[in-house]
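Sample pair:
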Amino acid sequence: MKTSVLKITGLLFVCVLAAAAADSNENAGKGFESMGGPYPDDPRHVHHYRLDNGLEVFLSACVDEPRFYAEIAVRAGSKNDPPDATGLAHYMEHLLFKGSEKLGTLDYEKEKPHLERVSELYEQHFNATDPAERKAIYQQITEESTRAAAYSVPNELDRTYSALGARNLNAHTWVEEVVYKVDLPKNCLEQWAMIESDRFLHPVFRLFQTELETVYEEMNRAQDNKNRIISEAVAACAFKNHPYGQQTTLGKVEHLKSPSIRKLEEFYRTWYVPNNMAIFIAGDIDPDETMEIINRYFSSWEPRPIPEQKQWQEDPLRGREQVTVSYEGEEFVLLGFRTVPFLHPDRLPLLMLDMMLDNSEAGLINLNLNKNQRVQSAGAYPMIFNDYGMQYLYGTPKEGQSKEEVEALLLEQLRIIRAGEFDDWLIPAINNYFQKSEKAKLEKYSSCVPLMRDAWLAYEPWEDAYRFLDQMAAVTREDVIRVANEYFGENYVAGYREDGSHNPPLVEKPPLPDINIDAAAQSDLAKAVLALPQPDVAPVFLQENRDYRKLQDERGITLYHTPNPYNDLFSLTFSFPLGTRQDKRLAAATNLFSKTGTETKSPDELQIEWFKRGSSFNISASANDVVLIILGLDDQLPATLALLQEMLEHPAVTEESLETMKAVTLKIQADLRKDPGGLMTALSSYMAYGEESAARQWLPADQLKALTAAELQELLRSLFTYKYHVLYSGTMTPEEALRLTGSLCRSDAPLTDRLPYYQPTMRTPEKNEIFFTQREMGQAHIAIRYPGVNYDPELMAQVNLFNEYFSGGMSGLVFQELREVRALAYAAYAAYQPGARRTEQNTMEGMIQTQADKAPEAINAFIDLLDNMPLSAERFKQARETLLKDFAFTRTSFREIPALALSWERKQIEPDPREKVYQKIQQMTSIDILATFHKEHIAGKAKLISVLGDTARLDFNALGGIAEVRTLTPDELFIN
């Protein structure tokens, strides 16, 4: 959200205009001009510039960390894809990570003829219709791509950024935009400009064939996504002409397999021009210096005329239109109402209406449907684009409830708003919620960039965008009722997802070029970028009594406290030393607590009271802890804790609410038996722990049904009889915070020590094992796990080095070998995970999701990578330097400090252990250290491999060739 502002007086407004004019005059002849800002009442102090070539720049300086976050956006997304070649915008996103004429190549002049031949062959393939001819052409593409790959430096953009200390390197494509993102140390601004200007001015679409396979893996993943399936079906019905409904971001399957590089080049020439793009940077920067660098590197980019954005006219929806899709698992209802585009004046009242429906706490859906358990779950969200908007309402039926009943309940919430049957407190409370959210966002430098970017993409001037909160405050009750009646009548799309078979397309795995990654290979541009000086910044480690305080009262309640230097928002966590491993009833007890009322307040009234005070809470039970998190305003903390005390000491729950909670719990557990994520989690856990796995340790159904409200309420109250921890960040003193939070415990006597920490021991197999569960799906989900030694702080430097070397984002071995070289997956991950306690095992964890017919190849490749990790002195050096930069340029948020300090206490290590790790890594200059760690802790270990997939699509016999396969059913994985 944007920010609340004061009214600008006429005199002040004149001063602002004068300052802007002076700024513009000052920049005259420099190659750029000021377009406005910073405005006196803009808390982010955004500077807006435009280069002579039309490239716009938005800058916001703040010094939370010695870093900056940058995005470069293009006003061209999937709606701009040609109808006969959908997915182009998304292809472009992927290919702009492949380098340029100077980056990602050892000799572009020698590489170029092969790339041109690849492009010609793809055109032939695009136009060919005979299957045999297409197959022959594809073989030629593979051969020519192999020749081109001999000159490439795969993943060099990612590796160069990693060497600079980058994090969160990524991009996204959506209907209106493609956005490229990176977070860097503050001393890398010029390096960023060198890379990005070259990236966009001189791109080369190399390694095209393997990247297309990666994109297809992304498509496979999407086709197994139950929520994406229903949302795309509803959009297609709502927009019968517009690409919002007729073209998806990933494109059509037939287009993915018949791409045209010429069309990609045309898309690039049309839309990737400076007068259609913008740069957004926030962080520890100097705006003047930043503009000088941007102008120097980007001003040579020639502008070109931009085509006028095409307009698609949609006829009004006529009555209720239904669309139904099938997917094995929970049923679902998604209602879509067409609304207005971004710049329409009704956007703000419609956003208020959305929050009145669902603000996660006290909206009509939150109270009437979720709190009162009239459905399993429900909510609402808007999607507002440049040409049209949509408002969605969704719900999941309870056991025995029809989709039609859920639809009727959702529509009833709209009727309440249309009739004006809502309380006057709701709109002001939502505006207070916006204000609180704005304060929280101002704590983080990177939060400004999406706000600037979204405004620019929608053609909204920043001087309007940052006044969002004032504009929302002007929305009246009458405005909301008016838009509710105008846009939420009988014309809408009803999407139903029913429990049934879903068969995504089956695609044959094609041949791919041979690619070798030489970690020592570097282009001249990468060498030049890394040769630029980077002034050192010393790391900052935490110190007790400087950065945080630890207090304990005579009863054994321990407080970790950090002051809030930004605002009056507190965050408060109670961590109780009792979890579901000690008492399985705690999951039900915490669930019921979130639905409780008191002797004087109904559950709805209680939730409204929390929301009015700007407070919220969440309680959950894990294996060894119950965690209660409360967020709010410091001046409301005493009253908030009084509400909590009332809920604990005087709870009121109806028998109907208790029984409904039990039924919903069993329905959710039943749905997990069919859900790919739920099945994979249960399978991987069972493979490792057998009967001690989490899903086998749920409270049995008969015991759940026998629970009473009284015993669950007493169980929650008993938490305060144990020595517990309190984590607080806010404006109160440590002594005041301990006194106030400690008042929830009514006992003056010393509290009970925590029960022993319980962690099941992971099985150590004698040889590789595969556990398999059948699920109809396009991809196979694969997990590889095996145990290591118990947590040892002396190993942490080596663990950090191994993880960075082996799986450090896009520059790690896992990404490069399994995705970049072999195109086996869109998502692949691995890490050596330290235990949470001294007595807990470390574990090696790996994950890959791949097209089912590639599963055996993916498993073999992953095992080979784990056992025979390639050793490269250059890659080791880069991993080490990346880690050292991360230590130097990362600052721990004040809100993260208490939990970090508690984790050190639980591991029995002195604060701040990261300083010792940093010093050790500084001394680790030989790759022999990594080789020794790999040999002792990673290589040659017998592995526990779990596979979730469809036997109709994967080669089950090939799995048996890897290891003995044991097939398990959902009944064996879950207790209920």
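Residues 1-25 have pLDDT under 50 and may be disordered.
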